[in-house]
TrEMBL record:
The keyword Metal-binding does not apply. It comes from the Bacteria. Gene3D superfamilies: P-loop containing nucleotide triphosphate hydrolases. This is NitT/TauT family transport system ATP-binding protein. One of its GO terms (molecular function) is ATP binding. Belongs to the ABC transporter superfamily. Residues 18-253 form the ABC transporter domain.
Length: 274
């Protein structure tokens, strides 16, 4: 059955885990000379366990939206809730995990020490930290590399470690900003599959930024296409492909049609702008 994109936000609104309501962001003084309107009137709700991707032209405010949810930035207008509370409260309760394009691991700490860091900050005992970090390292396929340092790992392995670290506090929401953008295609495919499996198994709510429409369609329940700056929601695509998904789904006619539709929306956005 095909769900329309009009019904989808209502479904998410039933018990939203993340909600943006009328969010706008202006950098610099509002109305001032150097002011940059990054986002305008963004309203979006993610249901618990939902995987939503943001795609849009460079500079349309995707990272800005993620940073707002992560409490790294306050919106100029509008409101945001994460797990029923403000982003600040959600961050302090460690309900949010964040993964960047560059793994941003601490180079002087071993992999297990990196994964344990959020637990350390939360005051979890050393015994429990070791156990949980060990489990996560196994989960992301890095067994045997606990004592290695980040520089000894490949890019894909570093991203796996980064995902394990973000998941260490069992966050309700995982925010991912182009996490696989710097990886080769084969590693990226493999990590896409692992992320799909992990997010389903842990019932995590994921907000994922990517430049690849195909990656967005492969992973998501919904794909949000944004307009050029100031970023607004241009279209929400419902990805009605069955789960569990495998890489081969990319050959299905429905996948190809959805990816083409997303691309057309993106290109249309550029057309409207110019
Ligand atoms: N701290 C800041 N001060 C001023 N302008 C900023 C700041 N952060 C972001 N911007 C501007 O806001 C706009 C949105 O940036 P953002 O990084 O969110 O876009 P994006 O869609 O993630 O881009 P990309 O796809 O290239 O990563 C850009 O024009 C950027 O230059």
């Amino acid at each position: 059955m095909t769900r329309s994109s009009v019904e989808a936000p209502a479904r998410a609104a039933a018990s939203p885990l993340v909600s943006f309501s009328g969010v706008g962001v202006v950098f610099g003084s509002t109305g001032g000379h150097g002011a940059v309107r990054a986002l305008e009137d963004v309203t979006l709700a993610l249901a618990e366990g939902e995987f939503v991707s943001l795609v849009g032209p460079s500079g349309c405010g995707k990272s800005t939206l993620l940073r707002i949810a992560a409490d790294l930035l306050a919106p100029t207008t509008g409101t945001v809730e994460v797990a029923g509370q403000s982003p600040r409260a959600a961050r302090l309760r460690r309900d949010i995990g964040f993964v960047f394009q560059d793994s941003a691991l601490l180079e002087w700490r071993s992999i297990i020490d990196n994964v344990m860091l959020p637990l350390e900050l939360k005051g979890v005992s050393l015994v429990e930290r070791r156990e949980r970090a060990g489990d996560l390292i196994r989960l992301v396929g890095l067994s045997g590399f606990e004592r290695a340092f980040p520089r000894q790992l490949s890019g894909g392995m570093r991203q796996r470690a980064s995902i394990a670290r973000a998941m260490s506090t069992a966050p309700k929401v995982l925010l991912m900003d182009e996490p696989f953008g710097a990886l080769d295609q084969i590693t990226r495919d493999r990590l896409n599959m692992e992320l799909l499996e992990l997010s389903q198994r842990q019932r995590m709510t994921v907000l994922f930024v990517t430049h690849s429409i195909r990656e967005a369609v492969l992973l998501s329940d919904r794909v949000v296409v944004m307009s050029p700056r100031p970023g607004r929601i241009r279209q929400v695509l419902d990805i009605d492909l069955a789960r569990p998904r495998h890489l081969a789904v990319r050959n299905d006619a429905r996948f190809i049609a959805l990816a083409q539709q997303g691309l057309a929306e993106l290109e249309g956005g550029f057309g409207d702008h110019g």
